[in-house]
Design goal:
257 residues; mainly alpha; ABC transporter involved in vitamin B12 uptake, BtuC; globular
Length: 257
């Protein structure tokens, strides 16, 4: 099957699954002609935000997984596995515990993802060994998860702690449409940043020296990729919690080699 035909099939399958998610549930689509107000309320306030956030998370984590694997030149790099998602999660939990405005949580998630990715890149910059990356990433992931548990332990509001615990488990439900739409902008910007440097990621797979000899400004590209990855991971984790292994499996599934 040609690549273009394959992507058309994938897009059609995605569109079909989105329609199924919108019109199948406890309130069947037949009620559109009987209970119009109830159906449209469920569609606009429950099903549409959930569907958009799920698509955004799947696409975003898949793209960031591919970018990280090219950026770190390691097929095991994944935002959820090496601590990037945990960094965004810790920032969001701190914001929730301290009573920050809900509008600032995605922004703080972006900042947490940037700091974590920068630390990870510096930790493995001199040694790109797979084992070193995984060990550093797992240690960082565990450390950030422990800090998140510590924040929960010091929370004085038990209802707020319970809310955060359910959020950490990961869920696309109960998110208002305006928050989901707000998250679309940084995610799209992150997509655009990574897409512009897609050819540099191809050359980085052969090493930084090779990419530099091809005329690419490696340091500038790496900074832009870190920002792009954080712009995608931060809002997604802030709204839907940590979703693991999507960024690991998606690039491997589409690997043509």
């Amino acid at each position: 099957m040609k690549q273009s035909s394959f992507f058309v099939v994938i897009l059609m399958a995605l569109f079909g699954l989105m329609l199924t998610s919108l019109f199948v549930g406890n309130i069947p689509w037949q009620s559109l002609w009987v209970q119009t107000d109830i159906f449209w309320f469920a569609l606009a306030h429950l099903r549409l935000p959930r569907t958009l956030l799920a698509v955004l998370a799947g696409a975003g984590l898949g793209v960031t997984g591919a970018a990280l694997q090219g950026f770190l030149r390691n097929p095991l790099a994944d935002p959820g596995l090496i601590g990037v998602s945990s960094g965004a999660s810790l920032s969001a939990v701190l914001a929730l515990s301290l009573g920050f405005s809900l509008a600032t949580i995605p922004f703080l998630g972006i900042m947490g993802a940037i700091v974590t990715t920068l630390f990870l890149h510096q930790a493995v910059s001199k040694n790109k060994d797979t084992l070193r990356l995984i060990l550093v990433g797992l240690a960082l992931n565990s450390f950030l998860s422990a800090l998140t548990a510590l924040v929960l332990n010091f929370s004085k509001n038990p209802y707020k702690s319970l809310e955060i615990m359910f959020w950490l488990l990961g869920s696309f439900s109960d998110q208002p449409l305006d928050k989901v739409l707000w998250a679309v902008l940084p995610v799209v910007i992150g997509f655009w940043i990574i897409y512009r440097d897609r050819h540099v990621l191809d050359t980085l797979s052969f090493g930084e020296d090779f990419s530099h000899n091809m005329g690419h400004a490696i340091t500038t590209v790496q900074k832009k990729l870190i920002i792009g990855i954080a712009l995608i991971v931060g809002p997604i984790v802030s709204l839907g919690g940590i979703v693991g292994f999507v960024g690991l499996i998606t690039p491997i599934s589409f690997d043509k080699s």
